[in-house]
Amino acid sequence: MNEQHNTLINELVNFLNGKGAHVSFAEAVEGLSAELRGKTPDNMPYSIWQLVEHIRIAQWDMLEFSRDAGHQSPNWPDEYWPEEAEPASDDAWNQSLSQIENDLNEFISLLKNADNIYEPFAHGSGQNLLREALQIGDHTAYHTGEILAIRRMLGAWK
């Protein structure tokens, strides 16, 4: 691979890991007390738990779409958003966070090992690995901002 390609991959990895001009997902959920995970402030449609689960489901879907031509995405929007406002347990919370981290690492591995991030997938409608990387990063950053806004409303952010 050439130097420009390596530079792009490194920048995408930094973007996906939330390194840059804003708070990362991991930082946004770090230290959040269990009693606040399911709180939905006035005039907000979701709790932090629902946002975390939505990030997990959407990122998993984009990862699987990127590596498996036979992948079937969940039905939009119902299967991308949990109905429950709070996690069933600390284990459910921790499992969700763990899957987000693991799936992100899997996607980064795909990205680093791809021969051509611009080549459209044989399945889909023109998507490629670069597009999926940008979509994962953008989607996670957007909802991370919402998590921070909710934490501020709940008095649980600096």
TrEMBL record:
Pfam family membership, one: DinB_2
Protein name: DinB family protein
Location of the DinB-like domain: 25-147
Gene3D superfamilies recorded: dinb family like domain (1.20.120.450)
Annotated SUPFAM superfamilies: DinB/YfiT-like putative metalloenzymes
InterPro entries reported for this sequence: DinB-like (IPR024775), DinB/YfiT-like (IPR034660)
Source organism of the structure: Mucilaginibacter defluvii
